[in-house]
Write a structure and sequence with these properties.
CATH class of the largest domain: Alpha Beta
Helix content: 10-25%
Structural class: alpha/beta
Radius of gyration: 28 Å
Number of strands: 30
Number of helices: 14
Oligomer: single chain
Largest sheet: 8 strands, parallel, barrel
Number of domains: 3
Length: 649
């Protein structure tokens, strides 16, 4: 029988060389299904990497899923690539690869497909990432928004459960419908960026998107690639950055996915000590294989290039870097140096960071979700670092939540859980996360982690947010936490937006909104957020009163704010040491009744020349219960006049 596939290629010899060297970073321009024309006939070019296959054919709804009709040609150069042109096919055609290997025929979806079906068959679709973008102004200027010297406040969200259709709560909203609701909400709330939990195609809803099969496909749960592009475009037009969760750590064992793709262990190491993830029952990428590195770095590049993403938050970096991650003795093998570091994974992450920053410069940012103290994660590769732009501050998150669960009498014994982060806050460029991981699996919602009755729970959470937003580092808050979602996050349903009918929830939302605007509008809170000039303790050791006092400082000498936290349910007057020639005014009080607080007013009611906290003067401040107070430094007029007179003399 005559083969219906014609010879065709998009690969040059240089492409093949780069692919085999692990240095081809735009494989999506070559692999997959591409609409092309051959000798005046329109059709689709297919190419797939399957070096151990005996035969590869394209099956689909155009040939009744018959693996005899459309057999691809193996390249002659030992690359393991199969390719060919099929006339008459168009966008929307369903297809898979039938891969004959070791006497079996495996039906595999296309690793480079741009769209997948949402069903058990989960076939790939011939698709396109063509879109008429209108976000040029954003792209040109976004380096300012992604700068470490700019405010970065991220709203982390899961597209399937942020908001559902009122009339059909079982149905997802389309990306375009989400845009209509999300864009004005983010703008009003004052977040600078939104972070989407994985938008890449995944088969299993309870994985939340972290077990990906279609690495180059926007999940069709919420619409087409162009619908997702519309959402990102709308966010950009409204000055909101988009960070995507990216998962180069592992993939599921679904029959149509990457696992044993051509009958061999192609994308994963064969040794289960390296290739199988015991916690997630998934498979780990083979970071030592050049073609796999090309696949993964091309995937990162694809989302930054074709979808205009402004950053990638890399999931599960700890599991990638540690050979003994979640393994008992005897279940892992040390590296050639005898340590537990996965040297190949480290090299891969360095190459990934080098590649994307070389391509996009400071217009994008990479963020590591990493919970160990792995060194130099956000230091440049040329200085021996891993090259990330930022790292999640997981230690801060756990210490803080542990503290706020404590009984009030016991807080004095745990006082330094809140000061400890200042010992290491400049070791890396940190993002402070209160993420989705903290509000699932029986851990309780954020509001129910707080100590006390309902009023105290909300007061504690308001104080925690003041502490978070006024500390150095970027911020990340998971959806629902901004208004005190009471139930744990459930990926199957919408957030409980009706809670905003209750003043205490509305008040919390108002507080987060005002904190975002304070953080964004006052340079002292972000200019020096990643260097030691921006933070100073005034009182870190008042264990008896559970009070903390610190300064945040901008580049100008008089750009200074003071933050005072009272983490007991008592109201009392408090003496604070200040420098001569300064004068302070309360500009923010988390106990304000518009935030659901008790309305105890905080103001400086006395100033004295008494030395206090190793400073020559002191002020007296009324501290509301369970509160965060922010004061702004103003130059004392008398002091200024004296200085002018002295200068004239």
């Amino acid at each position: 029988m005559m083969n219906s596939v014609k010879t065709y290629t998009l690969f040059t010899d240089h492409d093949i060389y780069l692919f085999k060297e692990g240095k081809h970073y735009k494989l999506y321009e070559k692999f997959g299904a591409h609409s092309v024309e051959k000798e005046g006939v329109k059709g689709v070019y297919f190419s797939v990497w399957a070096p151990n296959a005996k035969k590869v054919s394209v099956i689909g709804n155009f040939n009744n899923w018959n693996h005899q009709d459309h057999i691809l040609f193996p390249r002659w150069d030992g690359s393991g690539i199969w390719e060919g042109f099929i006339a008459g096919l168009t966008w929307g055609t369903l297809y898979k690869y039938a891969i004959e290997s070791l006497g079996k025929i495996l039906e595999k979806s296309d690793p480079y497909a741009l769209s997948w079906e949402q069903n058990l068959q989960a076939a790939s679709l011939v698709s396109t990432t063509w879109y008429e973008w209108s976000d040029e102004e954003w792209l040109e200027n976004r380096w300012k928004k992604n700068s470490l010297k700019s405010p970065i406040s991220v709203y982390e969200m899961h597209l399937g459960s942020w908001l559902r259709n009122d009339k059909s709560p079982d149905k997802f909203l389309n990306y375009r419908d989400i845009a209509g609701k999300l864009v004005p909400y983010i703008k009003e709330m004052g977040f600078t960026h939104v972070e989407f939990m994985p938008v890449m195609e995944y088969p299993y809803d309870p994985s939340w998107g972290y077990q990906i099969t279609g690495f180059f496909a926007a999940t069709s749960r919420f619409g087409s690639p162009q619908d997702l592009m519309f959402l990102i475009n709308e966010l950009h037009k409204n000055d909101i950055g988009v960070i995507l969760d990216w998962v180069p750590s592992h993939f599921p064992g679904d029959a149509n996915g990457l696992h044993r793709f051509d009958g061999s262990y192609l994308y994963e190491p064969e040794d289960p000590r390296r290739g199988f993830h015991p916690d997630w029952k998934s498979y780990i990428f083979n970071y030592g294989r050049n073609e796999v590195k090309s696949f993964l770095i091309s995937n990162a590049m694809f989302w930054l290039d074709r979808y205009h993403a402004d950053g990638l938050r890399v999931d599960a970096v700890t599991s990638m870097l540690h050979l003994d991650y979640s393994r008992n003795e005897g279940e892992w093998e040390p590296n050639i140096l005898g340590t537990n570091v996965n040297l190949e994974a480290k090299t891969f992450l360095q190459e990934f960071n080098t590649a994307v920053y070389k391509e996009f410069g400071d217009h994008i940012i990479t963020i590591a979700e990493e919970s160990s103290d792995f060194p130099l994660l956000t230091k440049p590769v040329h200085d021996g670092g891993v090259g990330f732009g930022m790292k999640w501050m997981m230690g801060w998150m756990h210490d803080t939540l542990d503290y706020f669960k404590e009984e009030y009498d016991n807080r004095k014994h745990n006082h330094h859980k809140l000061t400890f982060a200042s010992m290491y806050m400049y070791n890396e460029n940190y993002m402070m996360p209160l993420s989705h991981d903290e509000v699932v699996h029986g851990k309780a919602s954020l509001i129910y982690k707080m100590k006390g009755d309902e009023w105290q729970k909300f007061a504690n959470l308001r104080a925690l947010y003041v502490y978070m937003f006024t500390n150095p580092g970027a911020k990340l808050l998971f959806m629902g936490d901004e208004f005190g979602q009471t139930s744990e996050w459930n990926f199957k349903q919408s957030l409980d937006w009706h809670l905003l009918d209750f003043p205490v929830h509305k008040g919390l939302q108002n507080l987060v909104k005002d904190l975002n605007h304070l953080y964004k509008n006052e340079t002292a809170f972000y200019e020096n957020q990643f260097n030691q000039d921006g933070f100073e303790w005034v009182e870190a050791d008042d264990t008896e009163n559970s009070v903390y006092v610190y300064l945040r400082k901008g580049k100008k000498k008089d750009d200074v704010f003071m933050v005072v936290l009272n983490l007991t349910p008592n109201t009392f007057d408090y003496q604070i040491g200040v420098n001569t020639g300064t004068h302070w005014e309360v500009i923010f009080n988390s106990d304000n009744d518009k935030y659901g607080g008790s309305g105890v007013e905080s103001s400086v009611f006395k100033e004295e020349n008494d030395e206090c906290m190793n400073r020559p003067k002191s002020i007296f401040l009324k501290l509301p219960p369970l509160s965060g107070i922010v004061l702004k430094m103003k130059k004392d007029k008398k002091y200024k006049i004296q200085r002018i007179k002295q200068h004239k003399k």
